[in-house]
């Protein structure tokens, strides 16, 4: 049985927007056995909605980045708890499936009288990622400090690790199925 990259969405829960056939849980377990433990936890959180894994994913992500970039974090006068908050923002950003949360990807809202363009996505149906100011406010940081030090840690390192987990899943699909 060959599974293409488009069939990854069949790992997501069934909804009225996603009408594809589901992959059996036995097949998913077989594929996830081919990825690392951290990747498996993140993928179970993202595709199987096992929210009990979120704490483990956030902690392991912050720990990886701290071990790899300890000097940079200390030089930037950042604290390890700050990495936990940044990891939480990265995981939340990584869990976003690209659809607007206000209109559920439709691009419009029904008011009962007429349909109007969604005010969050401006009618595109896609989710916009957080801006620098929004992330700095979420982390209770100064905007200049975030742009100078935090943005590199968040985008290059944390989001890169989460993207590598997705790559591990794709490779496991190709190898194991």
Give the topology, please.
Layout: H1 25-32, H2 37-47, H3 54-68, H4 70-75, H5 80-95, E1 108-110, E2 115-117, H6 132-138, H7 143-176
Antiparallel strand pairs: 1-2
Description:
- This protein is mostly helical.
- Helix content is 55%, strand content 3%.
- It has seven helices and two strands; from the N terminus they run αααααββαα.
- The chain has helices spanning 25-32, 37-47, 54-68, 70-75, 80-95, 132-138, 143-176; strands at residues 108-110, 115-117.
- A two-stranded antiparallel sheet has the order 1-2.
- Helix 5 (80-95) packs across helix 7.
Supply database-style keywords.
mainly alpha, 7 helices, 2 strands, 3% strand
Question: Concise description?
Answer:
The protein is 55% helix and 3% strand. With 177 residues, the protein is mainly α.
Tell me which oligomeric state these chains represent: single chain
Q: Give the tally of structural domains.
A: 1
Given the structure, what is the number of helices?
A: 7
Order of helices and strands: HHHHHEEHH
Determine Rg (CA atoms, Å).
19 Å
Parts with pLDDT < 50 across at least 5 consecutive residues: 14-18
Mean pLDDT: 78
- Identify the overall geometry: flat
End-to-end Cα distance, whole Å, is: 6 Å
């Amino acid at each position: 049985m060959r599974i293409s990259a488009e069939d990854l969405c069949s790992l997501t829960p069934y909804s009225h927007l996603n009408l594809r056939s589901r992959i059996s849980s036995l097949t998913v377990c077989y594929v996830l056995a081919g990825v690392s433990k951290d990747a498996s936890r993140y993928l179970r959180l993202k595709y199987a909605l096992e929210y009990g894994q979120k704490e483990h994913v956030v902690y392991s992500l912050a720990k990886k980045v701290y071990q790899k970039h300890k000097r940079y974090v200390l030089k930037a006068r950042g604290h390890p708890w700050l990495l936990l908050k940044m990891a939480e923002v990265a995981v939340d950003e990584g869990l976003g499936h690209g659809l607007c949360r206000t209109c559920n990807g439709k691009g419009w809202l029904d008011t009962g009288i007429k349909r109007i363009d969604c005010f969050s996505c401006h009618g595109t149906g896609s989710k916009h990622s957080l801006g620098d100011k929004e992330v700095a406010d979420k982390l209770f940081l100064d905007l200049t400090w975030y742009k100078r030090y935090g943005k590199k840690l968040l985008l290059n390192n944390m989001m890169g690790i989460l993207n590598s987990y997705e790559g591990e899943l794709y490779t496991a699909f190709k190898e194991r199925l």
